[in-house]
């Protein structure tokens, strides 16, 4: 009677474990960057949906953006990064930035983000 070996060897298990740990480690560096980006998008959408922004100045919009960032605990994005462009209907709010996180030794994870939201003023807002 021949016995068949079943299961993983110790070396196979260690290789599999190291690959899984590498992906988890990379996820721990990348996921917070995306959470931060979605907080920025949520802040822009919230500003566009607020009632008192229809006649707001650029400084007031920037202050509202800073308040939303503070509420969501976003520390890396500054209110000065908000670009407000004037359009025919109102404003176009753009936040464009690059994040760099150290991964391992001299390897970095670099991500570029761009969030854009239209802010309609006056009678067109209704």
Report on the structure:
The chain is an alpha+beta fold and 126 residues long. The chain has two helices and three strands. It has helices at residues 10-49, 58-71; strands at 82-86, 90-104, 107-120. Strands 1-2-3 form a three-stranded antiparallel sheet. Helix 1 (10-49) packs antiparallel against helix 2 (58-71). It is elongated. It starts with 9 loop residues before the first helix and ends in a 6-residue tail after the last strand. The mean pLDDT is 89.
Quickly describe the structure.
With 126 residues, the chain is an alpha+beta fold.
What are the defining features of this structure?
126 residues, alpha+beta, three-stranded antiparallel sheet, 2 helices, 3 strands
Oligomer: single chain
Q: What percentage of amino acids are in beta strands?
A: 25-35%
Helix and strand content put the structural class at alpha+beta
The helix/strand order is HHEEE
Query: What is the residue-averaged pLDDT?
Result: 89
Q: Biggest sheet, open or closed, and with what strands and sense?
A: 3 strands, antiparallel
Number of helices: 2
Total number of β-strand segments?
3
Unreliable segments (pLDDT under 50, ≥5 consecutive)? none
What is Rg?
23 Å
């Amino acid at each position: 009677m021949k016995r068949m070996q079943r299961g993983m060897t110790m070396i196979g298990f260690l290789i599999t474990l190291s690959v899984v740990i590498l992906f988890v480690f990379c996820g721990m560096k990348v996921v917070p960057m995306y959470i931060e980006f979605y907080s920025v998008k949520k802040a822009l959408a919230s500003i566009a949906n607020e009632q008192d922004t229809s006649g707001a100045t650029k400084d007031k919009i920037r202050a509202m953006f800073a308040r939303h960032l503070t509420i969501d605990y976003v520390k890396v994005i500054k209110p000065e990064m908000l670009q407000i462009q004037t359009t025919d209907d109102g404003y176009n709010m753009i936040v464009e930035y690059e994040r760099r996180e150290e991964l391992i030794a001299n390897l970095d994870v670099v991500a570029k983000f761009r969030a854009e939201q239209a802010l309609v003023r006056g009678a067109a807002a209704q």
